[in-house]
Protein 1
Amino acid sequence: MNGRLVQRSLYAAGGAALFLALASAFLLAIGHSPFVTLATMAGYAFGDTYSISESLVKATPILLCALAVILPARLGLITVGGEGQLYLGALLGTAVVVNYPGAQMFALLPAMLVLGAAGGAIWSALAGVLRARFDVNETISTLLLNYIAVLLVNYAVYGAWKDPASLGWPATIQFPPAATVPSLMGTRVHCGFIVALIAAVVLHVAVTHTRWGLGLRVLSGNRKVGTMVGLRFARNTLIVMALGGALAGFAGICETSAIQGRLQSGLSVGYGLTGFLVAWLSGQNFLRAVPIAILIGGLISAGDALQLYSKIPSASATILQGMLFIAALAASGLSTRRETRRG
Amino acid sequence: MAHALVTMAGICKQFGAVVANADVDLEIRAGEVLALLGENGAGKSTLMKVLYGFYQADAGEIRIDGKPIAFASPREAMGSGIGMVFQHFSLVPALSVWENLLAAFPDAPWLQGRSSTRVQAALRWLRRLAPSLDSARPVRELAVGERQLVELAKVLNLNARIVILDEPTSVLTPAETERLYGFIRSLIAEGKAVVLITHKLADVVACADRIVVMRGGRVVDHAQARERTPEQLVNAMVGRERGSSIGAPAPVTAAAPVLQVRGVSATAHGAHIRNISFEIAAGEILGIAGVSGNGQYTLAEALAGLIPVTAGDIVLGGVSIASRFQDGAIPDDVAYVPERPLDNAVVADLDLGLNLALRKMRKLSLFPQRRAITARAEALIARFDVRPPRPALPAAALSGGNLQKLVIARELSDTHRLVIASYPTMGLDVLAAQAVYRTLFEQAASGACVVWISEELDDLLAYAHRIAAIYGGSFAGIVRREDASRQMIGRWMAGMDREAAA
């Protein structure tokens, strides 16, 4: 047991070394000192309270989208629909605000959040129904639903919901304070982050310690046997897809309300896909996804800062992020292979 | 006089603490069919895999044409003209028959059209084996018997002089079996040597020249086929162990049927059963004999309530199972030991404790207590002798026989109204099999109706109250044990005869 832990730490260290080597090569190639740049990035990501809060702001939708991938994965389903669910959550949540902008906070805020979560849940459950009833591959259907959701949001913000005061800019009206998710301690970090943390812990307990979680393991391991002992694959598919979608939809409406203040096209910068990668890096583990999402959030926010202050294009951060994923996946792949070989 | 192609002397092979072969001598002669006879686990397959280079012997010597050899791999053995057809085939299901044959053809270039002379050469043996088989069909569409012929053609394409067949008739219909026997004789006439690994006396009677009987890893008898009667061979195969018989099941006292199957038809995975009817009283064991693949699986799944019936009804204790069919869930008062437990009964990556708790899934508390599950598992594992006895092990780590015991432990540790057991002793040695039969007796004694599907005709004749034979998806006949004979049931199983209309 201890030996295995040492083994895993060695592979993690190897992965980190691989990432540093790749990143250094890349930064040298674009003419920057690797050491200085990486140190600067670390500072921008987690150096002070403001940096940390910006990193958590980016980490929030990523973590929620990762949870939306991990839950279906526990039933053996592979969804890539975080992005679409996030957009549809933003769309339905915004519908409340656009129609009742003057409502009281105690009614408007919960209604907006609930509808946002419902939007993501519906979008995801659509793929769930297709899978459960007609055996349509959920990976393909969630991927395609992403495009529809993004275009639906565009349709709304370019059309009926466009704020006349925004001089042609495709965006809705500014959300009133009554429809703004409260932030934490004066930073831009909002309550959605706390919800994501709670969701990660609750889901972890639910899938590892409850009868329901055991049922998911049985169904994903041998669907025929699960069905024989009375478990319902169709019902569980709908539950995990809808719950996961609700989290991604919640991420969408929070991002719209708390960070951007209005619904506009280009709402997400690939949070759904990044969440998918975080889910895989975590080994489909809810708790492990939390630090990974925060790390990736830090990398993204440091990339923004780099562009502002160091004249390094922010795309570099995306490239570094890709290198980090490759290094981490290579390390974890090698370590699993080593373990299975030993039997 | 046939000369010795292969001599094996003093072969020993151990797996951990298990002795698979102990000091085995064997001679394989050209122009002769050698039947290697023995029960499951007698060491027949291991011995042949040692010859084939699949395993390396711990001790002993192998000579081919008088020269000592030591094969490190099957590839080297093939090079010396040894070919083996395993029970599990190595064909690519998505490729056509000719593509499969070509892929294994010696010196096949990387690219060629299907009309080339090489393709014709690769198909040469298959044309003799199965003239009517369309070589353009993908292998996944072929029946098991046809696949076996393709596999055999593949081995013969490699210019095998010594052909080893591992339980070839276990997957064949009677007609296919007859054709295989004929083909084996024609190979012999060409001077090849054939080794037939089998536990069926019918194979020996039909086409063996010489017999070697193995038991517990040793050769216990060696003779010309005509020198032995079937009774002598059975005694040699099973030794004295079966002498300590577990007796017959307690007589049935209840008269009223508890399970009524009325004109049931159903389909599962392309296999049909048609218009099957029978009744079982409480405490009665009905044995169902038949060559596997004649609808046993469909019948078992329908009785367990896992698939809907397309016609007829199944009534258990006055309640229709068929009408309360719900999405393939098994009723609580039915125990089911299915065939192929790894696919049909366990979750491979879940541990033994949870696998044993599966039938009580819905009754677990919201937060299941691992300690209670493990304690219950330990008791069951000890009682049913599952090895290794570690509840935390994943089910995938168990051998076939122990997996079988695990499923039996889960399904037959409580009392039920109906017990369905498909090949419950598959992969078990004689003593473990007797323990299973005792468990079936206990179930019957506690008032269950027992449906016991098996290929072991002798066991059925000894331990079932009544025996039915299934052929082509329907019952060929059903008879009380006292009135049954091997010949009668054998003819029913082979589809040569049906029960005279009563």
Protein 2
Amino acid sequence: MSESVSVRVNGRLVTVRAGATVAVAVLASGATCRASVTGQPRSPLCGMGTCFECRVAINGEPQRRSCQVLCEANMEIEANG
Amino acid sequence: MDSVRHLRFDVAVVGAGPAGIAAALAAADSGRTVGLIDDNPVAGGQIWRAAYNSARPSASSIWFDRLNKSAVQIVRGARVFHAAQGELAAESDDSAIQISYGKLILATGARELFLPFPGWTLPNVMGAGGLQALVKSGLDISGKRIVIAGTGPLLLAVAAYVRKCGAKVIGICEQTSRSRMARFGLKMMLVAGKAAEALRLAYDLRGIPHWTDCWPVAAFGNRRVETVRISRRGQTSEIECDYLACGFHLIPNVELPRMCGCRLREDFVQVDKYQQTAVPGIFCAGEPTGIGGLELALVEGEIAGYAATNWEDRAKHLFAKRARYQKAVRILQDAFPLRPELKNLARPDTLICRCEDVPHERLREYNSWRAAKLHARCGMGPCQGRVCAPAAEFLFGWQIDSVRPPLFPVRCSSLAAIPAQSAPRN
């Protein structure tokens, strides 16, 4: 499959392979996913929905596990790492 | 408020990895209604993750074709967070789901054990399986420098995979000794008949350094990992990398089986020859019954699926096949014990709980997991101890005593959707 999909990560346009997860788009943008409770940058650890380190806001909804959500065209992703 | 979906199946299967898919298909052979419930956006579990892309291994396509043609109803993106007699409560992005069932098959898979060391919380320090999962999910790693550290054959499989995807594997750090590693390799080839597999892997990994008696002691970097310090036969050295992928064994996901009342034996769900747990009508297949890999998971799933639909004859035909795959598991079981040095990697300020940022020095004050939770908030964050509890068990020898609903953080509306008679009590 050579189709791609474009989303925005912190306002920046990122294009990834169709079927890619939001976590992949965040990593491709160069951003980190979240800031920990003491302010450290964090990004995915487990890649399979267990660790909750990849949480971002998707279309305004906070605390979504980005490794468990597929990118859809024009998604607005906020990664606050 | 979100909508509530009500589903009813003769057989409900939780987990759409190989074991769950095989179980669902076997159960569906009887003509009964079967639901396959999974947290991920796409069925396949970890080993068959990203079945939509062209890298899908051919072995899995047979199973996916069968699944697509079957009457099995797949419920994707649904996290099961509560279990009561004959009922499950789950949550998807837009609704609460109430599932009632006649028989239940648990195929909840496994996750990685993560060991804390200074810098393990830096972005791009990941699980070995975790990195593989992200690459399967579309992450481009071509040209990236990757160090793979930990123990066991998973490291080799991940190294071969990421190299095929264009990454440069700088080295594989295996904590086990060279002699143990050699013994294991020999046994797998001679006893378990894995010679062809081993040779292919050796070819795929040609030229990649494989260091034994070697483990990561610290990771450094500004906002993401840039360097890893490794210990190798008593000497430390530093290696520059873009990703550090760590895999120190797999641990079974037994939270839901526990909540259902299944009995555990040495951390795994206890089952009889029909894969039935201590709770009549509840079956378990795949990694929660013992880390055994793909082939064993498939055959266990089939046995559970047939047994759950009272087709014991068909289940019995698979016993010999299961016994054959179990042989390899026994070799794997004790081949890679974690060395005690790994318990001393965490410094006083190294975080153990990544959700609540609880450092090692805060935990040394307590003598049980329960006390650490109550006083230091260790394991009280969104992952609910899935990462730090096994780490704490390894570091401090604490036993994890109970599971409580909800198994995952959920919306209040999903909790409110649970019927009063099946709501959690105490």
